[in-house]
Amino acid sequence: MNMWGVPDVFAYLAGRWRVERAVRDLASGDEGRFTGGTVFSPLPGGGLLHEESGTFTWRGVPRPAERTLRFLPGAVAGTADVRFADGRPFHDLDLTTGRHVADHPCAADLYRGEFTVQDADHWRTVWQVGGPAKDLLLVTDYERAD
User: Against a cut of 0.70, is the pTM above it?
Assistant: First the structure.
């Protein structure tokens, strides 16, 4: 897979994206799927508001799902400091090489995310979540919608 460097994460992400996410519980073998969309819109003072909404199907049961993140300007121009909606830190994001790995400790579990830019209109995240409470693999594909 070729990687595509992004000098400015905000310019790249701005707009609408179609989202497909596969979720697998590695312990039980259960699988789920999220289908929906994400909008990255400008925040006052800089950065982007990430609003994701769609349908998450787990064990055959579909339910509405949504999440909001804030992508704020990072320490280096063109990079992001990703935060939860309530302001708690989530991870950093630097796509200048087209690939970035970020860790997020959550209680006793560790989230490790790998971000890969495939081209101008496609990127992917792969989150592995491990610990006493979780053993998950989440693969999300984004395709530009506008």
Answer: yes
